[in-house]
Amino acid sequence: MSIRRLPSALIDRIAAGEVVERPASALKELVENALDAGATTVAVRLSAGGLDLVEVTDDGSGMNEIEMELALERHATSKLPDDHIEDVLSFGFRGEALPSIASVARLTLESRERGNVEGWRIVVDHGARAGQGPAAIPPGTRVRVEGLFDKVPARRKFLRSPRAEYSACLDAVKRLALARPDVAFSVDHDGRRSINVQRSSGPARVAALLDPSLERHGLGIDFARDQLRLTGVISLPTFNRGMADQQFLFVNRRPVKDRLLVGALRAAYRDLLARDRHPVAALFVEVPGGEVDINVHPAKTEVRFRDPSAVRGLIIGGLRHALDVAGHRSAAHEQAAAPVQWTTSADQELARQSGEGGNQARAYSPATGATSWAPAFTGVMEDRLDFANLPLARAEPALAPVPAHPLGVARGQVAQTYIVAEAEDGLVIVDQHAAHERLVLERMRAAREGDGVARQDLLIAETVELDETDCDRLEEAAPDLAELGLEIERFGPSAMLVRAVPAALGKPDVASLLADLAAEIAEFGGTLSLRDRLDHVAATIACHGSVRAGRTLSVAEMNALLREMEVTPRSGQCNHGRPTWVKLDLKSVEKLFGRK
Predict the structure, then answer these.
(1) Which CATH number fits the domain that encloses residue 97?
(2) What digits encode the pLDDT tens for the residues 304-330?
(3) Residue range of the domain that includes 424
(4) How does the average pLDDT of the chain come out, rounded?
(5) Per-residue 3-state assignment (H helix, E strand, C coil) for 151-186
(6) CATH of the domain at 592
(7) What pTM was computed for the model?
(8) Helical (H) or strand (E) element with 585
(9) Cis amide bond preceding 391, omega within 30
């Protein structure tokens, strides 16, 4: 077969296949063009989910007749002042998407430069010029895309239902609206307005587009390390979803879908959420232009970082600091919580690394520009009560006056599982197993980073029979387990010998513990860093060493548990993401009995 040059119409259709996969792809390109043109208002109109009509109107800089002609040519752009493609700061290349879209749809381009008396219109029908002339239009640009893939049935039949295509279009607009809170957006679908947001601050825009409850159950992030910066809003661990559809990630204000960023977000919540639950998040990563490649994917939805580990550490460190400072706040705990603020964590990280700053965290409010200092949770876990060794501290009188403790004073135990405490402003109910599980885990973490986890040597080593593959996994992880106070060694093809256990566990069921650890290592061991693997193992060990449901506790034990929870980071959630305590304020109690 001889080699031949392809006709320009076919070239455009091939290019369209890379850029325009569905109506949402075309919509994304058109809205990005509007933002790059300096628009302050973007109006989107859809019909049949974008299958029949996609229209984008903006009040940007507009184009004259000559520029419009160039915009419809391939490889023409206003976004590169020189030939350094790696320095592009815009969303894409204005005009590059237009010829691709015009080759597979009927495209009407109308634009008017500011200062011109009238605008100009050009119509292209599936790659063929269909007319042009003056247009009555305010300053800015309007692009109409009608009948996408009408003349390309092979592509049209693979499009989904109008409802599914509309959902994808809405997601594309949401991502761009989150990236640019300084721009007003509206979306009308078949005559019904589904999005209408005005220019606002970042947290307000996130709450308006994702969930208004984030104003009460969200955390602001502002974290910097070296030349990298992370801002955005995340949800409290107990304010979560069954799907990861409310996670929006941005790099240099560009919406992306990147596995590295998604994995880092998941890792930050790893021991705060159940495995089938997902946080709500809108995160913005700012990276120097030379440290990120944005041209990995034709649609620019994927990026490549020069130093992926630094970006991953930035996200995990920033989110962990915010969650630690939030402490006991939880959607399940309080009926009313403080509004979202950007939490400045860079100073905390610097203080942690230099050993300065004490036990205080810094919070910055962009609304007032004021910096306030408030006590934060200490990371020191020394001299804590060990619930495995009884008796504990002296019991407080059962009817003692309520001191100013956030979690109150224990008044009793229900079903040998839940501690009922009286606080100054209400009743607190604590799940004793979930709470102690978190305390044991945080003790082990602090000990691991300090002098090491205390271990208890067994007088007689215990032999545990397991599958040979499980023994292989445990043998390979033995050095990691030793850091957590669990000393094991291989004892034949299908058995492990346990010589020491973490002292905090008391007398655990060693066989069950090793079986659970082998399962954890099988699921996560090969894909996680050493620290993440240790956290997983520590969480499993902590679960086995916690006060179990069904165990009767004395008042002293219950109060000791409450006091330690008040000074332990992340004590509001157990290692699996469930809340450890809930609070019923006095007003709610009075309503239950008809007093108010």
Answers:
(1) 3.30.565.10
(2) 888 888 898 899 889 988 887 776 454
(3) 378-596
(4) 77
(5) CCHHHHCCCCCHHHHHHHHHHHHHHHHHHCCCCEEE
(6) 3.30.1370.100
(7) 0.64
(8) strand 581-585
(9) yes
